[in-house]
Amino acid sequence: MRWCLSLLLFCFLAVVNALSSSGNRLLVVLEDATEKESYSTFLGDLEARGYNPVVESPKSDKLSLFELGERAYDHVLLFPPRSKGFGPSLSPKNIIEFMNKDGNVLLALSGKSTTPSAISSLLLELDLHLSTDRSSMVVDHFNYDIHSAAETHDVLLLQRPGQLRPDTKSFFDGEGVLAFPSAAPHTLGDSNPLLAPILSAPVTAYSYNPKEDFGSVEDVVASGSQLALVSAMQARNSARFTLLGSVESLQDKWFSATVKAPGDGKESETANRDFAKQLTAWAFKETGVLKVGKIEHHLAQDSEAPSVELNPKIYRIKNETVFSIEVSEYKYDKYVPFEVPENDALQLEFTMLSPFHRLDLQPSGKTENSSIYSTKFTVPDQHGIFSFRVNYKRPFLTSIEEKHEVTVRHYAHDEYPRSWKISGGWVWIAGLWSVVAGFLAFVIMWLYSAPTSTASTTKKTQ
Amino acid sequence: MPAKRTTAATATPSITKSLSSGPKTLTANSSVSEIVHHVWQQYLTTTPERTMLLDAFMAFLVLIGGIQFVYCVLAGNYPFNAFLSGFSAAVGQFVLTASLRMQTSTDKAKGANGMGVGSDGVSHERAFADYIFGSLILHFFCINFIN
Amino acid sequence: MQLWHTILQLSLLAVTAAPTAAAASAWGFTDATVSVHAKGAGVGSGLKENIPDNKALTKPVSLGSTDTLKVTLTAREGRSAKRAHQVFLLLQDPETGLDISYPFNVKDNGKSRVELTQKDLPVQFLSLSDPLNAKLLIGSFGSSEAYNGAAFKLAVTRSPDQPVPTVEVSRYGKLPEIHHIFKDDPQNPPIVITLAFVAMVLATLPVLAGMWLFLGANVRHLPNALKASPIPHTVFLGSLLSLEGIFFLYYQSWTLFQVLPAVAVAGTVAFISGSRALGEVQGRRLDGLR
């Protein structure tokens, strides 16, 4: 009865958790409660997708990311603070600690207010750089909304981002124009390969500090597409940190605004609502989450041979081996078969210290919510402890790191070909048996040979 | 090699006797061919017939080992275990036969006298039994190793 | 994303090129020159070209490793020279779309100036074979239309003996495939040589027989021996033959555990019968028959 209840409870929890692959406890840190109204559509969308947003002020005493040493929330959404920082409970150290415990963070900034130095130092730890005055704003005299920013040009109109690289998946593409009002730009450092830009400024954009304006910009740290507006960092434990440059783009006002770029006469609806959904879905692990199912390796079998042993602990050198891995990808509310992007490959390494084989895994099958990738290869002619490794780390996808050790042994003594099968050895085989035959003849001769009377005469005539 | 020396010492009278019908005695300034010829003649006259048969068997083993070795040099040593066992069968058999020769070789006079005991006091038949035992073990190992 | 940028730029180019769009309130430039002079060379030496107003230079400008590129212009809003908020020289790699902007030094009367050398360029631009697209961006706040037009092509030249700097940034992605290279299987020598040597090895047996016959080997004592002690002799010879036969079977198919008991039996028989048979042989020798 009891396990029945718990099963029921489990099912219920599963239904509730159906949305994000890593939980639905969402903390929204918003300093000014009155602002909540302007984000009502955004927060309502999150709630509709199954999250339990808890809106807290950073000044609140009971605000803590942790409870009894464990994460109290699965995701944190940080709105830009009005005051000097988020306070002691949201110090950079705590936020990093939260990510170390697999929590996801979405931090929104605004170009309207100076970003506190505490946040700047948090971003610096992730190799994301704000401008030194921390209060810059992106303007673009070529791509702005002429309705709302005819004079200031600070409402950027941007196309939805496509693929970051030809070999990555795009999670943020789609139709429509994004409006980014008063965006705070940042740049990405070179030293962190875990960083990936999601949305960059147009080529003609630049950033400046409206408070220190001298008529024209003469000193830019970065310009054009080097200015990132939305970036993501996925840590090695697959915890996600997303930085959004323009918090205003999440406001109700911009979810359904009509904008018009200078020059072209077309008016268009903003796609901010859709982009906000994609961005939060990625940031809170509704998309781009990979799960490894069954991993199988076995000897390659002949077509009619009976089943072979699965995942044996030991292989012989030069065995034909088949390796297959089942991968599924979480997409909003369910696992679907994972498709490797076109120019990318899921790779298997057969390693002992260094890889002896590194092979692209080919799709070989599909189930309802996973796809199976497999490859066939010959075990190297080197014995030792090897491992099957699948190390798949890509931007925007949670990492796969699988390692399965096997022993590779030499030929057993009865697995070598018999001597007569090797034509090179025939001479020595014949030699051995000739010696044996000669020995037998010698034994008979020695036992029964009688001395000949003619022997002495033979010797003499020689 | 004390055995040989004693054999040579005891054989001296018979040499002079049989060499009287031979070509000529060796002098200090004989040529190389003369020395070779002399040694060969001495071997023919002083070796018992049974020992000569044994020597023929040893020559056969040298021949068969030599052919196998030349083949290895010419055609490579793959499969090496076959080379080792084939060649060492010939060499081992040669060594065993050489020990048998040392234990059973007596000069004609002594053999005719019917002592029948080698220099170290082992009878010919006992030596032969040991020889068979050793040879069988050698064959077993070579066959085992040739796979 | 890059594609989008280029499309955007193309459309903007088309827009700016159209003279109809509110000619009174569009940004542009006049008195634009581009000059390149080498370090140490006198003023006035080197290349100096005038860029026609609001148009592009047709010839590419080449910038050597010690040269300084200097672009001057006067920004204009409509017909009047004016200070613009954004006066940029934008360099873009036509292939990858990589871009970087250099702000001009702008005076109040719109006169603007920028200087740059190869040290100012990102390293990615130093190893390009195609010339870069250099564009002028002039824009400011307000309703006036900003200017974005090609100015010239900039070819970055490097002396061939200087190493081209490269950047290596680690990014997660597909790695090259590795296939293990197996050791070659050992090769059998030509079958002809093998067969010839097999024939030579087998030919040694007739040679042995011939030598023995020549030396007078015979088996004339066999009847005597069989008469004297028939059972030990036959059993001894038989057990020797069977021992070698067991060895042959071991070579062919038997396992060690089949061989060992058989050898133990045959060996015991050979030992017992051998001592009898050799006793008989000794008797013959003592009789002086051998």
Automatic annotation (TrEMBL), chain A:
<keyword id="KW-0732">Signal</keyword>
<feature type="domain" description="OST48 middle">
    <location>
        <begin position="305"/>
        <end position="449"/>
    </location>
</feature>
<comment type="function">
    <text>Subunit of the oligosaccharyl transferase (OST) complex that catalyzes the initial transfer of a defined glycan (Glc(3)Man(9)GlcNAc(2) in eukaryotes) from the lipid carrier dolichol-pyrophosphate to an asparagine residue within an Asn-X-Ser/Thr consensus motif in nascent polypeptide chains, the first step in protein N-glycosylation. N-glycosylation occurs cotranslationally and the complex associates with the Sec61 complex at the channel-forming translocon complex that mediates protein translocation across the endoplasmic reticulum (ER).</text>
</comment>
<comment type="similarity">
    <text>Belongs to the DDOST 48 kDa subunit family.</text>
</comment>
<dbReference type="InterPro" id="IPR005013">
    <property type="entry name" value="DDOST_48_kDa_subunit"/>
</dbReference>
<comment type="pathway">
    <text>Protein modification; protein glycosylation.</text>
</comment>
<dbReference type="GO" id="GO:0016740">
    <property type="term" value="F:transferase activity"/>
</dbReference>
<feature type="signal peptide">
    <location>
        <begin position="1"/>
        <end position="18"/>
    </location>
</feature>
<keyword id="KW-0812">Transmembrane</keyword>
<dbReference type="Pfam" id="PF03345">
    <property type="entry name" value="OST48_N"/>
</dbReference>
<dbReference type="Pfam" id="PF23358">
    <property type="entry name" value="OST48_MD"/>
</dbReference>
<keyword id="KW-0256">Endoplasmic reticulum</keyword>
<feature type="transmembrane region" description="Helical">
    <location>
        <begin position="426"/>
        <end position="448"/>
    </location>
</feature>
<feature type="domain" description="OST48 N-terminal">
    <location>
        <begin position="25"/>
        <end position="283"/>
    </location>
</feature>
<comment type="subunit">
    <text>Component of the oligosaccharyltransferase (OST) complex.</text>
</comment>
Automatic annotation (TrEMBL), chain B:
<feature type="transmembrane region" description="Helical">
    <location>
        <begin position="52"/>
        <end position="76"/>
    </location>
</feature>
<feature type="compositionally biased region" description="Low complexity">
    <location>
        <begin position="1"/>
        <end position="12"/>
    </location>
</feature>
<comment type="function">
    <text>Subunit of the oligosaccharyl transferase (OST) complex that catalyzes the initial transfer of a defined glycan (Glc(3)Man(9)GlcNAc(2) in eukaryotes) from the lipid carrier dolichol-pyrophosphate to an asparagine residue within an Asn-X-Ser/Thr consensus motif in nascent polypeptide chains, the first step in protein N-glycosylation. N-glycosylation occurs cotranslationally and the complex associates with the Sec61 complex at the channel-forming translocon complex that mediates protein translocation across the endoplasmic reticulum (ER). All subunits are required for a maximal enzyme activity.</text>
</comment>
<comment type="pathway">
    <text>Protein modification; protein glycosylation.</text>
</comment>
<dbReference type="GO" id="GO:0006487">
    <property type="term" value="P:protein N-linked glycosylation"/>
</dbReference>
<dbReference type="GO" id="GO:0016740">
    <property type="term" value="F:transferase activity"/>
</dbReference>
<keyword id="KW-0812">Transmembrane</keyword>
<keyword id="KW-0256">Endoplasmic reticulum</keyword>
<keyword id="KW-0808">Transferase</keyword>
<comment type="similarity">
    <text>Belongs to the DAD/OST2 family.</text>
</comment>
<protein>
    <recommendedName>
        <fullName>Dolichyl-diphosphooligosaccharide--protein glycosyltransferase subunit OST2</fullName>
    </recommendedName>
</protein>
<dbReference type="InterPro" id="IPR003038">
    <property type="entry name" value="DAD/Ost2"/>
</dbReference>
<keyword id="KW-0472">Membrane</keyword>
<feature type="transmembrane region" description="Helical">
    <location>
        <begin position="128"/>
        <end position="146"/>
    </location>
</feature>
<comment type="subunit">
    <text>Component of the oligosaccharyltransferase (OST) complex.</text>
</comment>
TrEMBL record, chain C:
<dbReference type="Pfam" id="PF25147">
    <property type="entry name" value="Ribophorin_II_C"/>
</dbReference>
<feature type="domain" description="Ribophorin II C-terminal">
    <location>
        <begin position="182"/>
        <end position="285"/>
    </location>
</feature>
<protein>
    <submittedName>
        <fullName>Oligosaccharyltransferase subunit Ribophorin II-domain-containing protein</fullName>
    </submittedName>
</protein>
<dbReference type="GO" id="GO:0016740">
    <property type="term" value="F:transferase activity"/>
</dbReference>
<keyword id="KW-0256">Endoplasmic reticulum</keyword>
<dbReference type="GO" id="GO:0006487">
    <property type="term" value="P:protein N-linked glycosylation"/>
</dbReference>
<keyword id="KW-0808">Transferase</keyword>
<feature type="signal peptide">
    <location>
        <begin position="1"/>
        <end position="22"/>
    </location>
</feature>
<keyword id="KW-0732">Signal</keyword>
<dbReference type="InterPro" id="IPR056790">
    <property type="entry name" value="Ribophorin_II_C"/>
</dbReference>
<feature type="transmembrane region" description="Helical">
    <location>
        <begin position="259"/>
        <end position="279"/>
    </location>
</feature>
<keyword id="KW-0812">Transmembrane</keyword>
<keyword id="KW-0472">Membrane</keyword>
<feature type="transmembrane region" description="Helical">
    <location>
        <begin position="235"/>
        <end position="253"/>
    </location>
</feature>
<dbReference type="InterPro" id="IPR008814">
    <property type="entry name" value="Swp1"/>
</dbReference>
